[in-house]
Design a protein that fits this description.
This protein has 658 residues and is of the alpha+beta class. It folds into five domains: 3-59, Helix Hairpins; 71-306, DNA ligase/mRNA capping enzyme (D-amino Acid Aminotransferase, Chain A, domain 1, 2-Layer Sandwich), CATH 3.30.470; 311-386, Nucleic acid-binding proteins (OB fold (Dihydrolipoamide Acetyltransferase, E2P), Beta Barrel), CATH 2.40.50; 424-569, 5' to 3' exonuclease, C-terminal subdomain (DNA polymerase, domain 1, Orthogonal Bundle); 589-657, Rossmann fold (3-Layer(aba) Sandwich), CATH 3.40.50.10190. Strands 2-11-10-3-9 form a five-stranded mixed beta sheet. A five-stranded antiparallel beta sheet has the order 14-13-12-15-16, with no helix packed on it. The protein has a four-stranded antiparallel beta sheet with strand order 5-4-7-8. A hairpin with a 2-residue loop joins β4 and β5 (125-131). The termini are far apart.
């Protein structure tokens, strides 16, 4: 390929990867692959300086802002670091510095894989927090940073102005807890702790950020009015004395010791509460840093050593199948123990059947395993030349290994899922959904209480909830007599719920509260709904062929029929109580935006669906009306750009009542 053309292609590829990583917090390219391509672009641009353009990723830090937050100009730029990838490149850096500064000392510290921020204090009081952005201008995320418990809000020293730089991260333990809760709720899981931290820090609602329990590791003093220091080590010690959680560091002056410390950090990376993707080597003397200065993008006095993805061969001894809380069957490789990234690995994810088939993975194969800073190791491929000739291809089972119900492949993806309504593996998720606000709305039976019920073997299906007594509940942790009485009363009250709540509570795939309301109104009784054919179902607006197949599949399952029969015996209502939906909003789509004062967003959406319309979360050319409350933002702006009518709350109410 022509090198100028390759430069253009690399620039486009890396700019898109940077946009996804920095702006949308949704990276698609592994860090190590990005770094490899970035280095190739650097080499090509060095050979062809005439091809360097201002929009090249080598000429800037990060990516443009989302414009959802106010801009903050950094008085001291938040520079990025030059990456190095092997021992030789570290030695080259040390030799280059030694040529100008013989006897220099260095600080070596872990490179946290999070989101870089600047935190400002005035007169010893927390004032503002901002993301790095492009290094010179960041986003004001003050209220979200304020939620970080480990960050001091007042300091012992009342300096007129102090700015520190740190890395906001989500601890691995917190990440795992949040993902477990999301799985129970049937919501998409977060990809990794770095993405989770970045997405949480950019939440418009700081209450959401607070629930994510973010943390911070401070690694640099950017500005300290009225105080002077001579070394980086002194600044870190000072920041620690002010109550900041600072990054661990070692001050060294010997090349061999520096390389040994980099290796040690890599071996012990799992001992840190945060993920690390490298080690930083930087001059300790602050005056020496001034002598070396910076390029347009990076300081000349520091480098970031990036740990390569560690790959090793091992034997795949077996494949076990786990059933997740949403019913998805996940194959897991059982490996001969192998040491990776400082830990002994005996299991690795195999993702799904498509992954196994594509890579032709068989039990007994020698496989290549990688753990590139991720929590779960994965199998990269098979060493075919080491395969025994009599190994059989592997296929996931046709029935659930937990409950024996048939499995079904998702129409819109690679997941293979258990169809059992009473599958023990899905019990916690099914119970939590059954009692949730938009389902049976049983107050007091949240995920924590459901976990207690499951752990104490009090329920095996949702129908068992209706057999619970106060005596069953009062001695459970955090319950007591009053809470137990309230829970039993709430369960009893749910017997009289409208039919749509029951249909939604059953957890049929692609049947949420809106579809459940349409189905309940159309059929009137559960028996009529259960007797409907796929043709009957697809004749209803908003019920497509895939949803109809999921409904019939669920209703035909023996486990589902047993659950419905037990709910009927428990006295749960099986008829529609609300009047049939009118059709005045048929074919219309409404979008709610801003702070609504006359009704909640859920109430407004209910008013739309009860009148045959659709409620959407985004504005498009297909939107009929936008209902705008106070402080409406980008959705209102987009509606105006597209010429979509905008209603006030009063106008919307008048339209509903007309």
């Amino acid at each position: 390929m022509d090198e100028i053309m390759e430069i253009q292609q690399l620039r486009q590829q890396l700019n898109e990867a940077a946009r996804l990583y920095y702006t949308l917090d949704a990276p698609t390219m592994p860090d190590y692959e990005y770094d490899r391509l970035y280095r190739r672009l650097q080499d090509l641009e060095a050979a062809h300086p005439e091809a360097v353009t201002p929009d090249s990723p080598t000429q800037r830090v990060g990516d443009r802002l989302l414009n959802d937050f106010a801009e903050v100009a950094h008085p001291v730029p938040l520079e990025s670091l030059e990456d190095v990838f092997n021992e030789g490149e570290v030695r080259d850096f040390l030799d280059r510095v030694a040529g100008e500064l013989p006897g220099a000392r260095y600080s070596v510290e872990p490179k946290v894989d999070g989101l870089s921020v600047a935190v400002e204090y005035r007169d010893g009081v927390f004032y503002r927090g901002a993301t790095r952005g492009d290094g010179r201008v960041g986003e004001d995320v003050t209220e979200n940073i304020r939620t970080i418990a480990a960050l001091p809000k007042t300091l012992p020293d009342k300096l007129p102005r102090l700015i520190v730089r740190g890395e906001v991260y989500m601890a691995r333990t917190v990440f795992e807890e949040i993902n477990a809760a999301l799985e129970i709720e049937g919501k998409p899981l977060m990809a990794n702790p770095r993405n989770a931290a970045a997405g949480s820090l950019r939440q418009k609602d700081s209450r959401i950020a607070a629930k994510r329990r973010l943390d911070i590791a401070v690694f640099n003093l950017q500005l300290a009015e009225g105080k002077t220091f001579t070394t980086h080590g002194e600044t870190i010690d000072y920041l620690a004395s002010q109550g900041f959680p600072v990054i661990p560091h070692a001050v060294l002056d010997d090349d061999a010791a520096i390389l040994a410390e980099i290796a040690r950090l890599g071996e012990e990376r799992m001992a840190f509460p945060f993920d690390i993707d490298g080690a930083v080597v930087k001059l300790n003397d602050l005056a020496d840093r001034t002598i070396l200065g910076s390029t347009a993008k990076c300081p000349r006095w520091a480098v970031a050593y990036k740990y390569p993805p560690e790959k090793k061969e091992t034997l795949l001894k077996d494949i076990v199948v786990q059933v997740g809380r949403t019913g998805v069957l996940t194959p897991k490789a059982v490996l001969a123990p192998v040491r990776l990234a400082g830990t002994t690995v005996t299991y690795a994810t195999l993702h799904n059947q498509d992954f196994i088939t594509q890579k032709d993975i068989r039990i007994g194969d020698t496989v290549v395993v990688q753990k590139a800073g991720e929590i779960i190791p994965e199998v990269l491929g098979v060493v075919k030349e080491k395969r025994l000739t009599d190994l059989e291809p592997y296929f996931l089972p046709d029935t659930c290994p937990v409950c024996g119900a048939p499995v079904s492949r998702d129409e819109d993806g690679a997941a293979i899922r258990c169809t059992g309504a009473e599958c023990p593996a899905q019990l916690l998720r099914n119970l939590t959904h059954f009692a949730s606000r938009n389902a049976m709305d049983i107050d007091g039976l949240g995920p924590a209480v459901m976990q207690l019920l499951v752990d104490n073997h009090l329920v095996k299906t949702a129908a068992d909830l209706y057999d619970l007594t106060v005596d069953d509940l009062k001695d459970l942790d955090r319950m007591g007599q009053k809470s137990a009485e309230n829970a039993v009363n709430a369960i009893a009250k749910s017997r009289d719920n409208d039919l749509w709540r029951l249909i939604n509570a059953l957890g049929i795939r692609q049947v949420g509260d809106k579809a459940a309301k349409v189905l309940a109104s159309h059929f009137g009784t559960f028996d009529a709904f259960a007797a409907a054919s796929e043709e009957d179902l697809t004749a209803i607006d908003d019920i497509g062929g895939i949803t109809a197949r999921y409904i019939r599949q669920w209703l035909q399952s023996p486990q589902s029929q047993d659950l419905v029969a037990r709910l009927r015996r428990a006295g749960v209502n099986m008829t529609c109580k609300e009047e049939k939906l009118d059709s005045r909003f048929a074919g219309m789509t409404f979008v709610m935006t801003g702070a609504l004062t006359r009704f909640t967003r859920d109430q407004a959406q209910d008013m739309v669906t009860k009148r045959g319309g659709k409620a959407s979360g985004s504005v498009s050319k297909k939107t009929t009306y936008v209902v705008a409350g106070e402080a409406a933002g980008s959705k209102l702006q987009k509606a105006r750009e597209l010429g979509i009518p905008v209603l006030t709350e009063d106008e919307f109410l008048a339209l509903c009542e007309d």
